[in-house]
Amino acid sequence: MSHSATSTLREAGHKIGPVNVDQVLKDVNILGSLDDKTRKILNKEAIVFLAVLHRTFNGTRKALLQRRVIRQAELDKGNLLDFLPETKHVRENDAWRGPPPAPGLVDRRTEITGPTDRKMVVNALNADVWTYMADFEDSSAPTWDNMINGQVNLYDAIRKQVDFKQGEKEYKLRTDRKLPTLIARARGWHLEEKHMTVDGEPISGSLFDFGLYFFNNAEELVNRGTGPYYYLPKMESHLEARLWNDVFNLAQDYIGMRRGTIRGTVLIETIPAAFEMDEIIYELRDHSAGLNCGRWDYIFSVIKRFRQNPDFVLPDRSSVTMTVPFMDAYVKLLIKTCHRRGVHAMGGMAAQIPIKNDAEANEKAMDGVRADKLREVRAGHDGTWVAHPALASIANEVFNTHMPTPNQMHVRREDVHITANDLLNMNVPGKITEEGIRKNLNIGLGYMEGWLRGVGCVPINYLMEDAATAEVSRSQLWQWVKHGAPTSEGKKVDKAYALRLLHEQTEELEKNAPKGNKYQVAAKYFATQVTGEDYAEFLTSLLYNEITNVSDKTPAAKL
What is the mean pLDDT of the chain? Predict the structure, then answer.
């Protein structure tokens, strides 16, 4: 690239008009360390692109986050959610459709998900699945090294240069079959990437993850027969989907790529978004690849948004299954909406991992996975998620048996008629127990401790837990204390009781953990979240400063 003030950028085939590089890079700083591998990803041209995204869209992003605060204030007054009257014409218009599935996304019957460390990338792409969701969000702790090296790993994987050796073991991409289609999940709109600042502000984590992956790989992916595909998390309104669509259009125009090449699958994992499914697909239109049931985050969102309302107190997490009324309604509405619009309706996560030392327990766990996948395919889902390669064969068997077609968009579910009351039906049988409280504490502490060490995907009791399950755990505890819920043992859940159990569980976990663990730090933060008083919007935002090395004195990397 020319070092003159004005250049035409053509790095790796990118066709961009005249750009005043020095002007764009003014007041842009990289505060994380870079080496030769990461500089090829975060090159000057990519930084210019990220800065353009930030300056164009960050104001809208912040305004939409403020809109969430305003909506929360209304819910705190006892108001409920409903379908939007101003978008009724969108919901009732049968004429519009999403686009046909993009190359590599026609058949998505089994998707594996996981973080972007090099070992996971190789193992996921070698798994017997149709797609791999490479996750920069809930199964990754957003340390600088995790985020930037994850981009390096995906860059190399796309070019089939990702093989490596760890000790005596070699990790190599298989060559005996076509590899799964790659889908990247960017961070949600609420998260920032503090290691890159533009005009004194941290860049959005969403724009950082999206932009780096797109700028470095979009044309390569198209040349290899797929495209730049994304999962889009944590949205709460169709206006947030509109913002993504604007980002997609600008990005494609910027490099001279046909609009509609990017595809985004939206995770419906917040209760407000469940009331705007049609509108979200409509806003993305030519970029839509469907919707996904993000089940644990959805439960978290129901508790969070209605945490002040005693009518929304739920029993132990184990009682909140996919068949309880509000979850069943959400699934049915999602499938009907997607298929009416001609896009995929993806199922949820099987978080189980094999139990190697107990055949009977393992068989019971795998039977649970099989039953869950059978429920999904019979309901009309076009595919499902697994967290471990060993579960792929179960998901494949169920979907291959019951879905002989590449998808089942032809299953219209016209028998389904879901109302606002159905989505808000909290008639959930079950009890609050001390065992349930302790399980929530163990999951919350266990996950937070791993996250503070830079690990975003933590195995606990043979389940692969991510941020969503930790969020459910702490939100339930907050809710129970706030409303003085009684346990089945006759104990009122109050602040003193919650903090005593937190202390006991912390001591027990720390006693059996290696030296240098982070349980005390996790407990310090967790204690602020389980008393029915302070409530952080997201645990990951609450903890983020603990895993960043950025301060006012951090020197910027040379661009």
Answer: 94
Residue 344 has a CB neighbour count (10 Å cut-off) of: 25
Residue 243 and residue 353: Cα distance in Å, rounded? 36
- Answer yes or no: 145 catalytic: no
Residue type, position 552, single letter:
D
Please, are residues 293 and 348 in contact by the beta-carbon 8 Å criterion? yes
Report yes or no: 261 and 227 within 8 Å, Cβ to Cβ: yes
Q: Compute φ and ψ for 329, nearest 5 degrees.
A: -65, -40
Strands, E assignment, 240-361: 263-268, 288-293, 345-350
Give tens-digit pLDDT for 317-366.
999 999 999 999 999 999 999 999 999 999 999 889 899 989 999 999 99
Q: What are phi and psi of 507, to 5 degrees?
A: -60, -40
User: Which residues contact residue 509 at a Cβ distance below 8 angstroms, ignoring those fewer than 6 apart?
Assistant: 442, 445, 446, 449, 519
User: At a CB cut-off of 8 Å and minimum separation 6, what does 495 contact?
Assistant: 481, 531, 532, 533
DSSP state, residue 449: H
> What backbone phi and psi angles, to 5 degrees, belong to 196?
-135, 125
CA distance from start to end of the chain: 13
pLDDT tens per residue across span 389-441: 999 999 999 999 999 999 999 999 999 999 999 999 999 999 999 999 999 99
Query: How far is the C-alpha of 155 from the C-alpha of 221, rounded, in Å?
Result: 10
Half-sphere exposure of 458 (CA within 13 A, CB side): 23
Helix (H, G, I), strand (E, B) or coil at 230: strand
Q: How does 280-303 read in b/e, with b if 16+ C-beta sit within 10 Å?
A: bbbbbeebbbbbbbbbbbbbbbbb
Backbone dihedral region for residue 462 (phi beyond 0: left; psi -120 to 50: alpha; all else: beta): left
35 among known catalytic residues: no
- What is the residue whose two structure tokens read 């099987």? 350
* Active-site option among 109, 185, 187, 307: 185
Closest CA to 302 of 467, 80, 482, 486: 80
**457 Rama class: left (phi>0) / alpha (psi -120 to 50) / beta:** beta
List Cα–Cα distances, 468 to 383, 457, 548, in angstroms.
20, 11, 21
| Residues of the chain by 3-state class (helix, strand, coil), percent to 5 | 50, 15, 35
CB 125, CB 179: distance < 8 Å: yes
Contacts of residue 279, defined as CB under 8 A and 6 or more positions apart, other chains included, come to 84, 87, 90, 91, 238, 241
* Plot region of 458 (φ>0 → left; ψ -120 to 50 → alpha; else → beta): beta
293 CB contacts (<8 Å, ≥6 apart)?
268, 269, 330, 331, 334, 345, 346, 347, 348, 381
